[in-house]
Amino acid sequence: MSDLAATIAAIAAAMARETTRGAVAGYIPELAHVDPRHFGIAVVDAEGREHVAGDADLPFSIQSISKVFALVEALAAHGDRVWARVGREPSGSAFNSIVQLEAEAGRPRNPFINAGALAVTDLIAGSGGTPAILRRVRDLAGDPTIAVDAAVAASEAATGFRNAALANYMKSFGVIDGPVERTLPVYFEQCAIAMSCRQLARAGRFLMHGGRCPTSGAPLVSAERARRLLALMLTCGHYDASGEFAFQVGLPGKSGVGGGILAIAPGRASIAVWSPGLSKQGNSLLGTRALELLAHAMMWNVFNPDE
Ligand code: GLU
For the chain: N or C, fewer Cβ within 10 A? Predict the structure, then answer.
């Protein structure tokens, strides 16, 4: 096993030399301006030590990584009623696909694709709305400065025709019960939360610690719920590249089209990477590569017999 600080520095240096970086998410106009040369990484280890390299303190749009925090909030506020409207199966389809909804009576496959997240957010829109999600993220990260980037939220609202279609389609099946006009803004705002790698890695600590607060040890979510969140991240966290991520990296993770990925080595580390260029499935190209290198060097893999 390698030294963590040296490994992270070496990975950041290697990523800075990469010339193939993928394309930024141009379909959200505000994200199309982001410089693809950014790369950041932050790792919080089991003892709470933080190791960072590159642009680890620069905020970026967390996009679909917010789906993890929204699910935590929905489960806290609504319990297992969440599972009445959304499944727990990988979709094998694009993040914004509508095709399965018709065949499956409007019930999205999982909470980490857009349709599933909209169904989850509809529950929250009827309880605490965006403030509840933001409060949850701030509490988990221990950072009251985390905020929604209003320009990104407005940019998504102006161009979010597919999300509007998904929400309306699910509404026709009764899977969304509130007004679509109430659900969509909350969804766009949660996606537009801006966080740095360091803040994101801090927000993921409870998942490394079986649902417990890293400082007080108090349960933030039950151990069973933490395990289940990780199971969903492993099987559904990277859209139609979830199997490939499990194969190459071997850790539960959730990506977003802002180029961030939150990955968890249970009992070992909470890891956030960011590089805005994406693969064709919408996952950060260099972020995935960096996680592969890190997981391999540190021998962090949930399928290791000693994990
Ligand atoms: N806000 C993005 C959308 O709804 C999130 C997509 C993602 O990060 O996967 O298209």
Answer: N
Q: Is the CB of 257 under 6 A from ligand 1?
A: yes
The answer to whether residue 307 is domain-embedded is no
159 and 28 in contact (C-beta within 8 Å)?
A: yes
| Boundary (domain end) residue, out of 147, 162, 193 | 193
Predicted confidence (pLDDT) per residue in 218-251, tens digit: 999 999 999 999 999 999 999 999 999 999 999 9
Catalytic residue check, 64 = yes
- The answer, yes or no, to whether any atom of ligand 1 lies below 6 A from the CB of 191, is yes
- Do both 9 and 80 map to the same domain? no
Count Cα atoms within 13 angstroms, Cβ side, for 109.
Answer: 24
Number of domains in the chain: 2
CA of 256 to the centre of ligand 1 (A): 7
- The residue from 145, 168, 193 where one domain ends is 193
**Cβ 97 under 6 angstroms from ligand 1:** no
Encode pLDDT of 43-76 as tens digits: 999 999 999 999 999 999 999 999 999 999 999 9
Is residue 83 a contact partner of residue 149, using CB atoms and an 8 Å limit? no
- Of 212, 224, 256, nearest to 59 by C-alpha is 256
- Gap from CA of 47 to ligand 1 centroid (Å): 33
pLDDT bracket for residue 1 (50, 70, 90): low
For the question of residue 239 being annotated catalytic, the response is yes
Give the Å distances, CA to CA, from 81 to 53, 123, 302.
41, 9, 29
What is the rounded CA–CA span in Å between residue 9 and residue 118?
38
Q: Kindly state if the Cβ of 25 falls inside 6 Å of ligand 1.
A: no
Q: Is 120 a catalytic residue?
A: no
pTM (global) more than 0.90: yes
Examine the domain organization and report whether 69 and 9 are in the same domain: no
Domain containing residue 42: 3-60+194-298
| Neighbour count for residue 281 (Cβ, 10 Å) | 16
Q: Give the largest Cα separation in the chain, rounded.
A: 54
